[in-house]
Amino acid sequence: METLTTEAFRPELAEIDRMSTLDIARAMNGEDAAVPAAVAARLPEIAAAVDAVAARMSRGGRLVYAGAGTAGRLGVLDASECPPTFNTEPGQVVGLIAGGPQAMVTSVEGAEDSAELARADLDALALTADDTVVGVSASGRTPYAIGAVEHARALGALTVGLACNAGSALAAAAEHGIEVVTGPELITGSTRLKAGTAQKLVLNMLSTITMIRLGKTYGNLMVDVRASNEKLRARSRRIVALATGAGDEEIERALAATDGEVKHAILTLLADVDGPTAARLLEDSDGHLRAALAAAQG
Description:
With about 300 residues, the chain is of the alpha/beta class. The protein is about 50% helix and about 10% strand. The chain has 13 helices and five strands. Helix 9 (about 230-245) packs parallel to helix 11 and helix 12 packs across helix 13.
């Protein structure tokens, strides 16, 4: 453990408990400010991983996160936010956490130390060569994450290893290794802090940019948003308005004619086509609105 920068002791913070609350907050904020720069240093690796993931997902593959503790919870969080944001199909983006769903709120002793458990969790998904498995571990040595990556790679799936220490076993095991070195934590070994923040930022990039590449956005608009509540229905109307400049009545008619599908509604307005035609154009364009617009306009 003493070789891991994420576990290193900070002697200058040995009396942090004697500092004022405001000074502790300033210290934490200063530490957090260094995280984006650590992520920036790994942008080429992140971009290469995204392109590889998008290529697999365009063929119907899934994006699977696998981790333990904080890393696992962050993967589950990212996966759970993809359906409402990008209208992904159930099971298209999956978060696996060592110990199962109960580990989201309660520590499951020994689960993170089991590579066998990771293999069993992946086998339950019937992994294919079009899938991607992203192992996430701050230390880069968690057996569950490494086991998931090694098993996925043996099955021909794409693999990504996200760690917060240099020279990690996890990054070495994966085709795409991403090591965001965030350094020692404010509280020794508490990798839910800077390391967790870095992991969240990278997972945001992996899923969001992949979805952009898959045509889940139109510009920076969430045109595949799933309107499952009033807030999202209001957002849907606003997205159609921003994309088309149409008035409220036109927007309501377009959404009604397309069963509330934002992307379809935009196409009916911009290309002056009916709902079924919009659906056909989008299907022929693999869901890419710009391509469907170009096809409609000849």
